[in-house]
Amino acid sequence: MIQDFLSLDTFEAERPRLRALAYRMLGSGAEADDAVQEAWLRFDRTDLSQIENLAAWLTTVVSRVCLNLLRARQTRREESLENFTADWLGAADEDRIPQEEAELADSVGLAMLVVLDRLSPAERIAFVLHDMFDVAFDDIAHMMERSPAAVRQLASRARAKVRGTGTQTADPARRRHAVEAYLAATRTGDFEALLTLLDPEVELRADAAVTAAARPLTLQGALAVARSAVAATPRARFTALALVDGGPALVMAPLGRLSVVIRFAFAGSAITAIDVIADPARLRTLDITLD
């Protein structure tokens, strides 16, 4: 019984910090409470003698719960700015303490919460933990099961978006160099080189005309996209650099007949999105100049 009280007191001492952490990640007081409650349930059934750093362990648990909630939210795509704002104000939750909610929101700022809501789940977790709570990249990497370099890049990209520079891209020469390097790595099947060019959260979209199943395809993440590029190595010899609507791109033209255009989007010099176009109607709308 005494041990139970000690455990409860230990957790309650961490609760304010955990709730503030969850609130900044989720932007929702109700979801922050849910995340902390889930952390308590895991804490309550864990052998504490096996935990060396309790604060770090609880941070990891809450961060992973928040990441799962953010991913589920993104999948449902149910969040609107109106609902987000109403939840932030706490108007519909009589059980919440208005003063606490106001202090939490004021410490972050509504504008910041809205900007954070536009980040991907992984960007948001990396940015909040590192920039707001000063958690080391190595520790965040362990929490997110990613490499420290990937987490550092996620935080950097999030930081750029928060500061209003997230839509900026590299200069034309750097974009061209990245596309050239992508083609060279694809031709040689250089998997590691492809990974250095791709943003960790890169997304590849291919229209229905590209796939044998005749339906659109989406790949998410650098590993999946790099694997698909390596699989396309035999076709890369029919591929050349071109300017498509003024930007560097790749065109595939076996026997001189245009069949596929591959367009790229960037954050800095990292490739963040790849659009593979094979639909003849879409191809006809593109302004293509061979380089």
Give the % helix. 55-70%
CATH class of the largest domain: Alpha Beta
- Secondary structural class: alpha+beta
CATH architecture label of the largest domain:
Roll
On the 0 to 100 scale, the average pLDDT is 79
Query: What percent of residues are in strands?
Result: 15-25%
In total, the number of strands is: 7
Write down the CATH topology of the largest domain: Nuclear Transport Factor 2, Chain: A
Q: Order of SSEs, N→C?
A: HHHHHHHHHHHEEHHEEEEHE
- Give the overall form: elongated
Question: What can be said about this structure in brief?
Answer:
The protein has 291 residues and is α+β, with helices and mostly antiparallel strands.
Tell me about this structure.
This protein is 58% helix and 15% strand. It has 291 residues and is α+β, with helices and mostly antiparallel strands. It folds into 2 domains: 2-117, no CATH class; 172-290, Nuclear Transport Factor 2, Chain: A, CATH 3.10.450. A 7-stranded mixed beta sheet has the order 2-1-6-5-4-3-7. A hairpin with a 2-residue loop joins β5 (260-267) and β6. α7 packs across α9. The chain starts with a helix and ends with a strand. It comes from Actinoallomurus liliacearum. This is Sigma-70 family RNA polymerase sigma factor.
